[in-house]
## 1
Amino acid sequence: MSNVMKYWLLLESLNLPGISRTAQFENENDRVLENITLIQKSLSLSPEEIVGSIVANLQANHLKHRENEIAKNMSIEAKYSMYSLLIVQTIGKNVNLRSDAVEDLISENHKTLLIALLEDIVDKGVKPNLHSGFYKSKGSIFCRNAENQTNFCRAQLIVEVLSSIIHIPTLRLSEDIFLCYMAAIFSILLACDAKEYTVEQNCLTALQTKLNKIWTDMPKVLYYRNLMLLYGILPAEQKPRIHKEMLLKLWSNGGFVALLFALQKSEKTEEQPISQIVEKLVAQPSYPRRAQESMVQQILRFLATSVDNKDLGVHMGAALVSLRRLYDNNDENKELVKKWLKGQLQPLLEFHEDRITVMEWNEFCTRISLLFHMFCTSTVECMPSELLTAYLPLLIACHQEVCECTEKSFTMAVSNHLAQLILRILNNRGKEELRGIIKSFVLAQYPLEWLHKHANVIIEYDPLQLESLRIVQKDMESETNSLFSGHMNTLSIILKESSFSLLCYHVFITLFGLFTNLPKQSSEEVNANDDLLQTEEDVENKIVRDITQKYNGKIQIINALQILITHKPLKILLMENIKDVLIVLQDMLALYAVETDDDIDSSVMTILLTLMGEILENATDVMEDVKMELHKHLSKLEPKVLNPKLKFQISCLRKQIQGPTNINDTSKERFEEARLLLESPEPYMQVEGIQKFIQLIREKDTFTLNSVHVVSALALNTLKSTESYTFLNCVRLFAALVYVDEHTIMEILCDDYLNNSAATDYRLVVGEALLKVCKEVGQLCYRYKGLLLNTYMSGCRSPLDEFRYSSFSNLAQLCKILSFDVHQYFEELLQLINCELSTGKYMPAKRAAVMVLSDLLAAMDNLLDYQDMLLPIYRLLKLLASTESTDEKIRLHAAIGLENLSVKCKELLTAIGQPQLQKEIKITGIKDKEKKKLNNHILYMN
């Protein structure tokens, strides 16, 4: 220990760089000479003895025979470096600098002095003894010794001593020391490569081990930056040794991140973007397969780490470009990326019995965000979207569940990322591939390689954190597919809310073309599993399943088209590409032209013909060959159609295609004039347009009758007007349209009345319009009693109080009209009224429910025809009228109903008591006596 204290005292006496007492020397040479004098006084050893002592302490046999070479021709600086090296070696050998024990601790002053002495060793011993290549560059940071000759033995000795000191973390050595240490190692390696210096093979291995140890212990960014500095200093013929080391470290763990941050600190990267430099260094196709595999894994780990890290996020572009190039290099890299991608989404694909929580919400958001950055950040840096095509059902299902969460604040980002992923996948597909994807969603028949979210894996609120979600798995029975469920609806909403207008257009055209091109299912296939012993529940499930199999595709298409058509840019694209729409219509007509009349759907055909007429009317650039093709298909179709309305519509359309000379121009002008008025925003002009349409219908104008669907659509749109005068006249227009096509008008109004997605006020107006149309038709509307009664009774079950009230009121009026034919609906009607009176909380709806019975009684002509209905009605009304706790107006309605029943009973009894009148029907003119003929002239004879 006394020996160590001697060296500490000697260290304190030296004049070292950075210490204030060195300012007394005029130049660096004087300081070095002074330090040599101080050391020689204390140690009393010659330079040769110093070298021998250092080699002996190292126990390095490979340096023993080189002692003379090391001590040969020593300059003052070289002697000083050897003396200093012995001091450092002795202190490092006798003091446990790595220990945190109290007895081993040294003062900060001693640490500072030791570091300063190491800097002197590097400056006087290492820098002058490097390979000649490090001095050839202009402005090199290394200086050559006075003899202009490198002593590699001396450099190797210094490296051996520093290797035991340089890795002590408590010393906090400067970057310059590490740089010179690495330069000394590479100098020896370069000299060996050039046969300028010879060492044994185990020494070369030991030198490489020293480099690896620096890579392990020191910051990798610093190591890589030092490599880049050394690479830049050396001439071209000597760069391969450093380049090889750069590649080896790049391929090892942590190399990619080290390269990124080393380039960020480099000044030369300003001329060229970092991403391009990184791509060239990382993604060379000539690299070994294992090296490329290592780079792929490193980049994927870096991307996963950098998603939520702003410091790392700036380098994601460089990482993505490199990953994309590696992905394109070979099939092995592609399989590696695909395997990683599946691992990211694997928890959503399978069911694990040993856990409940599949994934925390933050982890789910991070993974989706990572996929978004990888596939959607740009068209240059992102990965190919075809990798995600198989995950489309999974992504759409996740988006649907995320959007169903009520808390939008923390789901907005992940829902946007999911939507962008879905849009990017679809937008990058070809025409035929996109058509196949859309058809798969419509029919719910997916390719085998597509992956779906497990039915038992769901997104729910975290009970421990109410403002957060989590992905869990629960044992649930698979639900029967709903007629109105499916991925197509979600996809349509995503398209509608996006800026991908051209993609929206292509999807719309694809869906439109699929409508009549879906595979048909035979009735034998639907009823193949009929079983007479099935329970009621089994029969119900089977009916739902069969209907789903038969109609779900068309329902999916109709819902999707209804959503997409509200996308405003889509309408512009349709008008600009009207030829595509006509070609789709032409294909539909070609299919119908080869079918029998039984297979032709009249409603679909009506819509097609109406749409075709509108397009031909408004489009000016329709090519003649398209028109002729349409005319040919219409000519084939017309003889097969038995429906007179369809036949008439086809005939008018054929005349329209043939040319303007065959069309009544005056009729067309009057129709367009009325249409322009009806589409005007001014109420008085709308009413004038309605009057003109009513006049045209009364005159049985051919062009108007052929365009009845257009008029119906215009009338429905006008119903939304807030002006009561416009609304009342619009109802008159519907009443006039009923005489043209009553079935269509009834169905249109009923569908709009039950459309839950429409505004409530509009639905109430449609319900009133439907009632007025029924009044216009009168008792002849018994032909639609099922449609009308079911429509209003469905409205009576609505959760909206005002809508329920309106439905009961309209139902009461309808019962007045159809009182003679409501027997088969009476039980359901009475159950609805009982349900409203017992569970309803909206008083006007309850009053309207009682009014249904009152109006039904008022409309009865002969009570004997309703005898099975009178007792339940009487009991209910009697109960309501006599209960004091009942609402006053309900009691009043019940009393009026009882009074009506009393009057009807008295009339019936009076009629029974009176003698029956005998009715005699006499037909005159048969077998009567012939009148005498006054004129017997031959011209008057029969």
## 2
Amino acid sequence: MVMKLGKNFVPLLLLVVVSTTSVFGQHPNRPVLSEWSDREFAQVPSDDAQPRDDQIDQSYRLPTHTVPSHYTIRLHTDLHTGSRAFQGIVDIHFDVIVPTDTITVHNRGLSVSFASLYAKEEDGLLVEFGFPQHELDTRTEQLTFRSGQVLPLGSYVLTVTYSGNLETSSNSGFFLKSYVNDEGERRYVGTTQFESTNARMAFPCYDEPLLKATYTLWITHVAEYNTVSNMPVEAVEPSEEHEGYVTTKFGPTPKMSTYLLAFGVSDFVAIEDGLQQVYARPNAIHEAKFALEAGVRVLDALNAYTDVSYYDYMPKLSQMAIPDRGGGAMENWGLVKYGEPALLFNPERNTYRARKGIAVVIAHEYAHQWFGDLVGPHWWSYIWLNEGFANLYGYIGADLAYPSERYWDLYAVENVQNAFGPDSTDTIRPMTQDATTPSAISGLFDSIAYDKSGSVLNMFRTVLGDDNFRAGLKVYLLNRQLDGAVADDLYAGLQAAIDEKDVLPEGVSVKLLMDSWTTQPGYPVLNVRRNYDDGSVILSQERFYADKRVTNDNLWYIPYSYATASDADFEDLSEFQWLAKQAERVETGVAADDWILFNKQQAGYYRVNYDAHNWLLLASALRADPEAIHRFNRAQLINDAFNLARANRHDMALALDLLTYLSGEHEYVPWAAANGVLNYFYNKLRGTANYHDFIVYVDALIGHVFDTLGDITTVPEDETLLQKYLKQLISTWACRVGYTECLRQTTEALHTAVETNTPVHPDVSYVVYCYGLKGATDDEYRWLFNQMISSGNEAERSVLIDALGCAQDESQLVSLVAVAIGGNSELNSLLNGERSRIVSSIYSAGRVGVEALVKALSDPPVAREFVDRFGQGTLNSVVSNVASRTNNDGELEQLDQFLAALGDLISPETAEAAVRTVKTNAAWFETFEGVVSTNYFANFAK
């Protein structure tokens, strides 16, 4: 459908389509997107083993009269034709541990046609026990079979015949994806994502994490396809019932949770190294080499670190790249599944960020092979026992595998400081939190489960000592192997490792300390008030809230260490003291003219605030010699100073003054912390009378550092990972604020790329393309669009989509909106996720994009097509984002006209929320923070 978007719109769109048509035949669509020793159940688990919130509906939990021991699953699929239908038979072996006449399992969306029940004799003989009737509670998704008589204690087998449909609207359960091969044929991929409550979409089962069992899987599929699962293939046999089909049979798994079962049916091929394999579509397998290499390195490193060998439990470890899955991954035991951008790496196409992301996500998923797979959570309340460890060891594992890359440098700024934001609200949950409904359980997979939990675990790893922590983890893993765990199991393992080692104060246990961090929400700010006459400090703690100061009596056991100007030893993290009360006086003996800094290397999960004079001493020390303070603590000081000021705990001018030391900062990590501060003020001040003053401030910070970068469009062979990060950050700001040299280099690099038809180096591609487009011709814009649409690499396409949104020509961006909405057959290679990414790239890159989107969607037919393509939620999000980027009267008038043009396509509530956002933006200038900040920038610019 052709959309009428004004005189400049149709010609450019037509040129885009014509110029890409010849490419589509050569580069067909390749889906793309850019981010146990066996232990039987001896008894019914007691309620005190897990926290249960009486306010939460526990009817979603399965009855505890029966427990599973083994599943034999036989599936038949015709997915190679694109058919969604599949058929299944499952034999559920279970034990009755309390006499009952019902067997209750989970089912979502499966049609059960027949069921039979057998009693299992001691010699293994099965005796028919009838044909139970069944009923489904669609609210709780519980499928109950009624045997017609009370089943005495013993072992039974329930055989269920059923059918279902592969999902196409979500990446959950047993779902269908596709790609186009080099011959232009569409090929289908059937794959799984069972965490957290989606195994029930593939077979009726006890879909709770503690109800572990073993699994035998047989899948019947067309012979030209193959199947991979948790275990190696034992046999591939011709199907007796379906000509041209085979049945792939897998060996029995170890005892594990339902959500860890996985399989994939496809025409994929594999590369391997020893007992590891990587599976990918044939026309992308050449991009799997780094994943295989990293997998081998990481597994070796984690085997050595845990001193518990993966291969004691599993015979192989496979990785699989799923097209059109988006980002992310799933840690199925023995078969880790990834979206293609999270696993496939092409050094000619992908950036240093992609390589880092792949290394860390592989280490994250491999860490799960111990934390989650070997030992799983007793209930989802303890999902942090999975995700917290994987978050932490994703970075540690990658760092051990590639020590020269210094991946650990990124941990605090990407995790600790990331967790601080959501964890500083008054509605946030604690680490240990009950939930029972599928949606509530899914909601537990949040920044608390990942970033906060990893940060808290790292704090205790540091405090206890890495060797002690490792020893404690080994006790924990071996004690709970093939079973579920609660927090106390972890504490017991760690305690066993430090007993009689004088690690903690006498009478203090690991449980006492860690419970204060895992069972209450939020985190503390450690207040440090110095007595400059006698060298003592008063330490106090309170819960930190981002937007207010509230009297509270929360109490954490806070481990602290400190460095001073006279003893600036930031490397020794072997000794800690504890603040175990609201406040106490501590003797430090620090001279009055020395600075003091708490929380060395930001190992502790808390903020630190000082009296004003110590802040000034720290700022002065940074300006004199940044390297006098550890780079992690320089990042900590920036992040703490800014957020403490925002919470009215000290003056924002103090924080802004501290940042001026950055003119001499050449490490990435502090700049990463500063980037958030600068972006905050950029979003507040762009388009206002105060913007010029802010730009003067930014110039003072980045100018010298930018001058040291030299040519920002090339990549020296000896450039380190963190130098690449720094170069992109600084050059992005330089181009954003209008540095002539930055814009000259990027413009020329784009011109050269177009003239020679040679893409720039991927490590500098975003900056070159984004800012090179500032004055780009339509031909150059179409060339970049063609680079994106013809690429077969999802991660590269994402980077190029983000760059395309940077255009400064409104007609180019309006055409891009049409590409996102439109259904031209030539553009079918665009995935739905990529279409959405195009929209967000347009409004995220700058005000020109916002106005282009407003112009396009102010045409009612186009707005209706937008809703048809993306749904109401996406239009609401666009309105919200336009409002958040509205900073002056002229932009407000545009927003009012936009809301009027949309009419009833948006709700009155959405429109009112947008207007409130603009009013809030405007009101900021009259707040204390706003007045102090703008006054500071004005004085700085004089």
## 3
Amino acid sequence: MITDPSDRLSSWQGGNCCNWEGIKCSSSGHVVVVNLRNPNPDEIMINVNEEVVSNSNNTFDFALKGTISPLLFTLNHMQHLDLSFNNFMLSKLPTEISNLTKLTYLNLSNAMFQDSITTQFSNLTSLRFLDLSCANLVPDFSSFSVSLTFPLRLDFGSLSSFISYGRISSPNLRWLEGLRDLRYLVLIGVDLSKASESFHWAKPISSLSNLMSLHLSNCNISGRIPTVELLNLTNLSTLEMSSNALTSWIPDLLSNLTTLSTLDFSGNDLHGHIPYLPQLERLSVASNPAMIINLVSMFSVPWSKLTFLDISFTGVGGTIPPSLSNSTSLTSFRADGCSIQGSIPSSITKLKKLSVLMLNDNNITGQLPVSMSSLRSLQYLSLFQNRLEGHIPISICRIPSLEYLNLEWNDLTGRLPLCILQLPKLSSLYIQRDRLNGNMPLSLFQKSRLEEISLGTSGLSLEIDDQHQPFVQTFQPKILEFTSCNMRGGIPEFFSNLTKLVVLNLSNNSLSGAIPYWLFNLPSLSILALSMNNFEGFIPPMIQLKSSRFPTIVNLARNNLQGPIPSQLLNVNVIDLTLNSFVGLIPTQIGKVPGIRSISLSGNKIHGPIPESFCRATNVLQVLDLSNNSLSGTIRRNLGNCKSLIYLNLGQNKLTGSIPKELERVTSLRYLDLSGNDFEGFFPAVIENFQDLEILKLAGNRFEGRIPKFIGDLHQLRILVLASNSFNESIPEELMKLENLQYIGLSSNNLSGPIPENLDGLKMMMKRENEATILGYAYSLKFTGAQLEIVTKGQTQWLESVYSYHTGFDVSSNTLTGKIPEKFGLLSGLPLLNLSHNNLFGLIPKTTGEMSSLESLDLSYNHFTGEIPVTLTVLDFLQHLNMSYNNLSGRIPSGPHFDTLYQDGTAYIGNKYLCGAPGGMNCSNYAPSINETVENRYDQENVLFVVVIFLGYVTGLSGLFLFLYLMKDNWRNMYWRAVDRIVLKIVNRGS
């Protein structure tokens, strides 16, 4: 049964089928063409949430739905059959199709079939065109970015390029052997993983001697490129094998295929170099990071036919050689992420046909060539994330064909040439993250035809010159990104007429007033980001967004908004209301929103329990941040249904009870913060199941008992904060084996015993990070970062952002005993060490001076003895030192930097034998020979003294008894009677 939303089949009535829509007949009256292709197929794509969305403006779905009638395959004179872009409900490929032996054209692509190919097509020996594709290409977003609340570069380069729903597989390709007339074979998305396990899997293809175009992209093919088999295809002009797992090199022998004009091996694991293939017109080897491409060598020979070259994300390095200009036919050159250095050669302006130049994410320096204006055909210029400097040349305004300009993330200075806004075809302008200056009236943009504008953090100030300026009908942008543009006042009224606006980002400005309600109902709006402004007042109870290629986001964080949290969120993937003044309960409906992936309500005034509606069985929630509120009650057991959660923050509330066992099902968790509540019980056993956990914060609760040994099995752990609880027993040695651990916070507990001796496993603390990476998780075009409270340099600091260099070891305020392990010297990347307020004793090891990154060292309130090691004076980064209230002795060591620390002596107070400390010994009366050997000698002398006394005591007693033994009985009796009288007198006096 077929349903037909487009009403295409309404003409299929009456006896003359040759008049039906989609049907063509031969002169003899036989049906030779059946074309039921969807006339308005949706442009299908996957957004960053890996959700299938449509980018089509179609109001209706025109696809046929249901299963195909077998009667269709009785038309045995049919030569052309097209069923593409319909929805046949994951049904199997019709076996009756083998009856259509006269077919020359068969297109079943993207029709939602799901089956394994065996012999269904073996009889179709007349076929010249066969398309069984199971997927549509996702549009290329690799050059686009949206900066929201954090300076994090997010692009779409890592997204899967295909949608694999309704997938067809083929265990082998023997069914191709009889199709000798095939010219075009398109198997995009067909699963050939099983077939490619055979070394000669492509042999059936080699029999297709007439084949001109072969498309095997996204087929899960692994192993080598089937060179021998391809060389038999002497008519082949197009070969596409992108997005597979090919692991060989590109064979030089492909140059023997003289008809080959298009070659696409992008998205594989190829290595080696690009062979000389002078016959090529289009070549793509993008996203093969193991490939090494020498552009100087490559263009030392002519590529006279080459029009398209994409080497993005391969190993290039070096500079762009002037010889590139010898390829005068080049129209598109893409080399993103290739570590290219040097400047753009002026000779590139000789490429008069060049229409696309993409050199993003490289190390290109120098200025934009003024002569670039001679590239009269240039339509697409993208140079983001390089090190370009100087002014944007006015000559760029003399490129009339320019449609897309992206100069983001460079060091460009000066003013933006206003003539750029008047380029007749320019639709996209991206210049965020530069160092420009000057004011720009918003009205200037209204006079342009720009559809995508991104000026965020460029240095430009955007002036709302007329709050009520009239709307210009020709100005209908899709993207407005004005982050950090010094905007003031309210949101202009003319924004209400921007019916095509998909992304509006006005974050980090000084905008004020109420957010107008109409803004939440713009018909195309998908992303609304107004964070870090001065907005106040209420927001509407219902917010509805429109699906697009982006996830849907409402970000109103860090304003002065108040009132209740909106209860109706329609088509919202991400909502962030952090740091406002919202009050009341969390609406129960918010947890039921289909497709919601992130809920951030931190830092408000909401109270009450966590709603039971959170985490229904069908949820896709990744981030839940309810921290810094006044929530009460317990953690609901149904949170265990949130199996997609990577970030859970319930810290700083009034939650009680224990951690429910059901939470163990959330095995994808990477961030867990339960600190600052009233949880109790032993260390939560469910944490053992979180094998991907990177950040664990349980501080400020009432947990007790020992820290379990399984903590050493959480190999991804980077931050561990268990401070201010009642954990006891010793620090588990397994903790010191975590190679990724960068911060240990165990202060203010009841831990006892020694600090584990073996610290070799703490690899992250053994090196000083040269390149800082920020800890957090990117999801749905938004970033959620880690936060951390640390005690460093004698003060408590709150880190809004945690970087990989924020390492520390804090076990202060416990009852630890023993000595400082010598192996602390291995932790040369550690800036913070706090062992204060314990019962540690012994000498301070000299190896402490090998901790070259130390900035804060606190050993106060312990029982350390001996001298302060001279090795500490070489710690150039040391800014805070506290050795007070110990039993240190000797002189305070001296050094150029060390002498500048605490000249008032407060770092050494409470050490009465320390020469020069407040209340300590007078240096002029102190012999310089006292050092750590004094303590050793003192210990030796004490031992010798005890031995001598003991021997004397034994000798005296034995001598006395020997004397008494030799005496006569009456003398012995007289002695003991005298002793009795003396003892009796002592007892009487005592009483």
